[in-house]
Amino acid sequence: MNILDKIVLEKTNHTKYLKQKTNKKKNSKYSKSKYFLSAIESNLNINKNALIAEFKRYSPSVKNFNKIKYIQDILEQYHKSKCCCISILTDKNFGGSLNDITIAKKITDKPIIRKDFIINETQVFETKEFGADALLLIAKILSKSNIKKLYDLAIDIGLDVLIEIENISEATKIEGIDAKLIGINNRNLKEQKIDINKSIKLSKILKNKIIISESGVTVSNIKKIKKESGISSFLIGGSILKNDNKIKYINRLYEA
Length: 256
What we know:
Blueprint: H1 3-13, H2 15-22, H3 36-45, E1 50-55, H4 71-80, E2 85-89, H5 99-107, E3 112-115, H6 121-129, E4 134-138, H7 144-156, E5 160-165, H8 168-171, E6 181-185, E7 187-188, E8 193-194, H9 197-203, E9 210-214, H10 219-229, E10 233-236, H11 238-241, H12 246-255
Parallel strand pairs: 1-2, 1-10, 2-3, 3-4, 4-5, 5-6, 6-9, 9-10
Antiparallel strand pairs: 7-8
């Protein structure tokens, strides 16, 4: 069983607990104000790179990033940098939890996206309850009908949504969904291999969308991706977390 299948199985087994926890809140009224999308648009409107800086303690491909101990230390640097948004990876396989969002909200007012393996409605409500501004939907692990159902619910309760695709067949899953933000993952989630040319190739079939290139993004890669595709929005984790001077490095990415 590969890491992606393992994580999805864990999420499925966790569903009953989530339903008990969030069912009572489904009829609650939620704020409809959205900040994640507008923060990205604001940077693009002044011809600057829109950067989503990601926090995670480790990943299947990297055991740890410079021995990260405290989320506070990293988020304070993100807050002072020129990234426009922050991604918090809340899955336990990456060392994360929803409490990381709670901590982040106390440190920064920058919009936060919950990056996780969302497969059911209760996780969407949970994301809102913990104060995130947006969530990630991964087309690889969802059917077309589930993407639409979860997307519509998230929008309805005031969350922005980033839908992530990895190939052409996954792009067909988002047809008919009025999603403004589409992420192209340069990493093969099952094999953990990176190819930044995926962003360049897939961007050509996506029209009237803000495209965010994800995974394997560095200063030199940004220049290549921008030149060959026009993409100016990026979600970056590893290369930032490996860098000792994160503020300086993020600001270099911003100007690339």
